[in-house]
Description:
Layout: H1 2-8, H2 10-13, H3 21-28, E1 37-41, H4 45-51, H5 56-62, H6 64-77, E2 81-88, H7 96-119, E3 123-127, H8 135-148, E4 155-162, H9 164-181, H10 192-198, E5 209-212, E6 231-234, H11 244-255, H12 275-278
Parallel strand pairs: 1-2, 1-5, 2-4, 3-4, 5-6
Helix pairs in contact: 3-11, 4-5, 5-7, 7-8, 9-10
Amino acid sequence: MYHRHLAAMNDLFEVLKPGSEDWLLAEAIDPNRLPAHIAIIMDGNGRWAKRRNLPRVAGHRAGIEPVRTAIETSARIGIQALTLYAFSLENWKRPRTEVDTLWSLLRVYLRRELPALMRNRIRFTCMGRLEALPRPVRQELDSTIAATAHNTGMRLTLAINYSGRAELVDALNAIVEDARSEGRLPDLRIDEAAITARLYTAGLPDPDLLIRTSGEMRISNFLLWQIAYSELYVTETLWPDFGRNDLLRAVLDYQKRDRRFGGLSLNRDRAPRNDLVEAGAIAR
């Protein structure tokens, strides 16, 4: 088992200490049953700061390292796509100083992390109503997108100025506008395939695993169409404390699920399990 895992996830084992908790978790993962697409609602920065009597912006700064860890770990274990919920349409309601700090942190992050994105062959994209972003932010995003456009590794998407409902509205309006411009409006019929093709995530597989930190049991208007059959994983861990072992545990939990997509399981008596975790070999 060891050699099979080492061959499949060699990139991850290169940065792990043999015998460490992360090493044991990585060994327990079945590389043949990885989620193709992981989406994460990164929640809890404000509460993390409040518990330490710090300003909210301190929580956002502390949340940068977990972003880096999640991206690197996902790329190293062979995840095809990672989508991070960074800023929603509703977040504009926050104090102006906090919003401005978020934009500043994003620009600094993109400039600082570009070498790592290139080294790991990660293709960077973003989705949302990007035209409403401040010009310097949009320019930094466009620059990073262009620089990584030819990378062939994991697809990293930041959801910025994003709303699941707004995405559906934009998709439907685009379908109607195309039909109007092509003279097909009187006969227009909209099906699921047409909507999927006009979503911000067109070309990506739907998320297999949706992770939410901070223990909140809600979707928060994120990928409403795409997560119809996603496996949900909620952890009490606040985002600034979310480390590599948290992500690996989420993947292991996903691999124990029996995904039926509305039908009956063909392997009900052979539900996937993880012997190391269930036997208590890895401390929770």
